[in-house]
Amino acid sequence: MDCEKIGALIRAARRERGMTQRELGEALHISDRTVSKWECAQGCPDVSLLPALSARLGVDLERMLSGDLEPSREKGDSMKRIRFFVCPHCGNVVTATGEASVSCCGRRLEALTPQRAEGAHRLQAEAVEDEWFLTAEHPMEKGHFLSFVAFVTGERCLLIRTYPEWEMQVRIPRRGHGKLLHYCTEHGLFYQLL
């Protein structure tokens, strides 16, 4: 651990939260002098305090240990850069339009890499008035189903959850061109242009 980097991170995060050294010390049941020592790189927090310190400052534990609180250099200004993360344990779906560190159920999630949809993984899109009616021949049974469908354009993302043992039928507004993405619980994320 680099005490200088960690101390600078603690100082910056504490100030962002509008906390004094005394308030942080009281929250952690330590003295404000201890917090001052950390911030002046005269020592590092004890390992037993790291989870509480991380939670109190709202900083990811891994980022705290590295002493890196720099914002992402990648701009998240377009929905076209959206990334999908799916928890393999609970099925939670998380999206990010820029670089992100995402975790769920105590595990770090990796961004899914979409592959071109072919065969049973290709959705059929039928224009019905001002909507797209999407269907699939994909199985929809527990353990193997399409868990969500998303339509992404430059300025928006429409995400619709689908469930096992239901027919795969989804309606989305017909608004220009975009990318249709869907997630198979066994084979991953797929895309096709619409």
Automatic annotation (TrEMBL):
Coiled coil: none annotated. This is Helix-turn-helix domain-containing protein. It comes from the Bacteria. Pfam families: HTH_3 (PF01381). Signal peptide: none annotated. Residues 10-64 form the HTH cro/C1-type domain. InterPro entries: Cro/C1-type_HTH (IPR001387), Desulfoferrodoxin_Fe-bd_dom_sf (IPR036073), Lambda_DNA-bd_dom_sf (IPR010982). CDD domains: HTH_XRE. It comes from Pseudoflavonifractor gallinarum.
